[in-house]
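Hey L., structure's done. Input below.
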Amino acid sequence: DNIENCPPNLSRNINLKAYNGHCYEFVVHRHIEWKAAESDCASKGGTLVVVNNMEEQLFLMSALGSFSFHGQGVWIGLTDQLQEGKFSWVSGEPATFTYWAAGQPGVITSPHIGKKRLILDTITGLTNIHLIDEDCVLLKYTDSGHWHDYPCLKLDPLGLVHENFPYVCEYRQTATTVGTPQTVTPSTTQTTIPTTTPETDVMASTASAEVAGSVGELVVG
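Output:
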C-alpha cells in the first residue's frame, strides 16, 4: 500500500509502512513502558498495533526483519488490565486471533493471587520477593514472533528493573480525494455573430446598368 495515504502528521521515512488499508509506525529506536507507548500512539491518532490474523502477524515480522531489528520484541495493543485473564485489544475488539508462546499467558496462576510473575531482587544482601501483574503483551521477535505477557509498568517497587521495549503504532489510512466534476453553466449573454455582406460584383452591376440604359434609350428613341 502507498504510505501517501497515511495520516499527514506522520513522518515519511523507512519506519512508516502501509498494509491492507492501515499504516504502521515502527518505533524501533525508542524503549518505553507499555502505557507510555499506547499514549504516544493515541496522541498521533492511532493505537498500539492490533493483530487480527496470521497475515498481519507475518507482515509485522517481515517489517521488523527489514529494519535488521535486534531487540527482544515490540509492544502490541493487547491487554487484560480491565478483566484479569480476559485479553482484548486497545481498540475494543475481542482477541479472536492470538499467537501465544507455549505456556503463555502467565507464569504463576492461582485462584487467590491470579496471574503473576515472581520477581527476586537481591539488594544489599537481602532478597525481596515480588509478585507482579502481567497485563500487557509483547510480540517477541526473538521467539519467532510469539506473544508473551509482561508487566505494563516497572517490575519492582524500587524501580530497579523496567520493562521498556520498542513498539508499533497503527493508524487507519485517510481516504483518497476524488476530484468533483465541474458543472459548466451556459452563459446567458447572447453572442452576436457578425453578418458578412457578400461583396457586390461591381463590374457586373455596372455592365447591367449600361445594358439597361441602352435598352431604355432604344425604347424611348
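The CA atoms of residues 206 and 212 lie 10 Å apart. Residues 202-220 form the longest helix (19 residues).

-- N.
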